[in-house]
TrEMBL record, chain A:
CDD domains: TM_PBP2 (cd06261). This is Carbohydrate ABC transporter permease. Keywords: Cell membrane, Membrane, Transmembrane, Transmembrane helix, Transport. Its main location: membrane.
From TrEMBL, chain B:
It is found in: Cell membrane. Belongs to the binding-protein-dependent transport system permease family. This is Sugar ABC transporter permease. Residues 74-291 form the ABC transmembrane type-1 domain. Its main location: membrane. It comes from Orlajensenia flava.
Length: 298, 302
């Protein structure tokens, strides 16, 4: 890097306001011709992402005959009944309940573990702090352990149980403990001592101070793990052979296998699964994007 | 170790120990055990005796009967990893630079690009199966304009490319968000200084943006490599577990261990599948270490 990218030269920093405005104007003029191109590019990018989704919605409202007559044409007589039919035939109510159970329990337990381990390690309240930090990093780079997780549950009598699946999914904490440990560093250590002087025990301190103060990090950790649990399909296939225990991802996959060519119904089923995710996403966007960034910097 | 102010240590030990036990039992032990059982003939059914077989499974991986299948899986995995890593980073950086400008609707665009991360593989798989469905779909329509037709995911020459395409589509969101965060950390003054020195748009990108974005590039490239070398859920959902055209190493682990190409009547040979797991782990570790070293050196030079 040359002087081009060094801090602004003193002459410029002290430049009179008029000169700066002129500079801004020049910048604006420099950017302007590109603006139309930029907007065109943004439209293309958004189109690439929205078109498949809109096509899905369009298909979900078609009867099968309509779809094969003109697959790409806009829907003329919306078949809202597709949704009801998909809901009933796909048994999605039960699958969604399963997924909600797995997601809340596994991501909840995983997040709790991240807090219970991340906080004391970050504060240095335990012996061998470097060992624990190394453990947190190792959690990110574990090899594919499908087979041994299957064998473990088999031998523990937890194969094909919801508890076994939840425990395996909860243990996939990923970046969670690291994120919490990083966030705790920004909380004042004096507070620990002040609370202790006031007679607070360790657990009460965790509940009344750490959890409320670390809420943004905790929410991020929970959401990141929840996405992973909600979307898992392979571990559920291996560990939960009983269809009654299938999560929604597996239920939808099985539904696709059954109604291979009934695209209207399939699309409606996909919409049923996607809609709550999109709705949740609209509310959680702030945490999510922040979380991804945090997990990389942490 | 800093002083622990809360008096009794037992609450700390109980809750920390609880977390540690769950992680060790359900994550660390299975991960380590993969290496151990790769030297055994363990099977998917309980109650069958397990024997040490030394390096038999590794010899089997390279045996004449299997080498074709394995080389194919390895080749597919490498193509998948290289193409998706390069494309995700190039496109991700381009989109991030685009969305970092003062444009209306950029927050919306960012949210839309990130959306597939939320939707998950099953939904993504269905959306694109519908899109590329051979009998009637937008892709088939476009093909027909040129008088062509295609089986898309059923076409052995096209299937891998399409799965890679979907992987890129789905993986861009995370890359864009990370690059955007990196871009926003670059001080505006540097661009002003570059303007004063008369830098062109391309020079601004090459001399200011890319060098200062080096840590984000390292993070993104590593994430994409590790993710794509191990990813198989998309290929599983889009083309099934036993399609040779999209056979990936991690998918081979799954189908060897749990279904598909059965090797004997006694359940699947999971010891052999664990061997593939170990080989995959070695490849992922070596590849990410090499890339990490290379990118860190570059960061230092810039």
């Amino acid at each position: 890097m040359t002087a081009t990218t060094s801090t602004p030269r003193p002459a410029e920093r002290d430049a009179p306001v008029a000169a700066r405005t002129a500079l801004d104007a020049r910048r604006r003029r420099l950017i302007r011709p590109g603006r139309i191109v930029n907007y065109a590019l943004v439209v293309i990018v958004v189109f690439c992402y929205l078109f498949p989704l809109l096509f899905l919605l369009n298909t979900a409202l078609k009867s099968n005959a309509d779809f094969f007559a003109n697959p790409v044409g806009l829907v003329t007589s919306p078949q809202w009944a597709n949704f009801g039919q998909a809901w009933v035939q796909g048994n999605f109510g039960a699958y969604i309940l399963n997924s909600v159970l797995y997601t809340i329990c596994a991501a909840g337990l995983g997040t709790a573990i991240a807090v219970l381990m991340g906080f004391p390690v970050s504060r240095g309240y335990l012996r061998w702090p470097r060992l624990w930090n190394a453990l947190f990093v190792v959690m990110l780079f574990l090899p594919n352990a499908l087979i041994t997780q299957f064998q473990l549950l088999l031998r523990m009598g937890l194969y094909n149980t919801q508890l076994g699946y939840i425990l395996i999914m909860a243990a996939g904490v990923g970046v969670g403990p690291l994120l919490i440990a990083g966030y705790v560093k920004s909380l004042p250590r004096e507070l620990d001592e002040a609370a202790a002087v006031d007679g607070s025990g360790y657990w009460r301190y965790l509940i009344t101070f750490v959890i409320p103060m670390a809420k943004p990090a905790i929410a991020t950790v929970f959401i990141l793990q929840a996405i992973g649990v909600w979307n898992d399909i392979i571990l559920a296939t291996i560990l939960l052979p009983d269809p009654a225990k299938s999560p929604i991802s597996l239920g939808l996959y099985a539904f696709q296998g059954t109604y291979t060519n009934d695209w209207g119904l399939l699309a409606a089923a996909t919409m049923i699964v996607a809609a709550p995710l999109v709705a949740a996403y609209l509310f959680l966007q702030r945490y999510l994007v922040g979380g991804v960034v945090g997990s990389v910097k942490g | 170790m800093s002083t622990y102010p809360f008096g009794a240590r037992s609450p700390l030990r109980i809750t920390f120990g609880f977390g540690l036990v769950v992680l060790v039992v359900f994550a660390i032990v299975p991960a380590v055990a993969v290496f151990l059982i790769s030297f055994t003939d363990i099977r998917g059914l309980p109650g069958i005796p397990v024997n040490w077989v030394g390096l038999d499974n590794y010899e089997r991986f390279f045996s004449a009967a299997r080498i074709g299948y394995n080389v194919n899986a390895l080749k597919n995995t490498l193509i998948y990893a290289v193409v998706s890593t390069v494309a995700i980073n190039a496109l991700g950086l381009a989109i991030a630079v685009l969305l970092n400008q003062k444009l209306r609707g950029k927050t919306f665009a960012r949210a839309v690009v990130f959306l597939p991360t939320i939707l998950g593989v099953t939904v993504i798989g269905l959306i694109w199966s519908l899109f590329f469905n051979p009998s009637a779909g937008p892709a088939a329509t476009v093909w027909s304009w040129f008088g062509a037709d295609s089986a898309f995911f059923g076409d052995p020459n096209l299937a891998l490319g399409l799965v890679i395409f979907v992987q890129i589509w789905a993986g861009l969101g995370v890359a864009v968000v990370i690059y955007l965060a990196g871009l926003q950390a670059i001080p505006e003054e540097l661009y002003e200084a570059a303007d004063i020195d008369g830098a062109s748009g391309g020079q601004r990108l090459r001399l200011v943006t890319v060098p200062l974005l080096a840590p984000s590039i390292t993070a993104n490239v590593l994430l994409a490599i590790v993710g794509s070398l191990q990813s198989y859920q998309l290929a599983y959902v889009l083309t099934g577990p036993n399609n040779p055209a999209t056979q990936l190493l991690s998918l081979a682990i799954f189908s060897q261990a749990f279904g598909g190409s059965s090797t004997s009547g006694l359940g699947q040979s999971q010891g052999y599948a664990a061997t593939i797991s170990v080989i995959q782990f070695i490849i992922v570790s070596v590849a990410s270490l090499l890339v990490l070293i290379y990118l860190r050196r570059r960061e230092a030079r810039l």
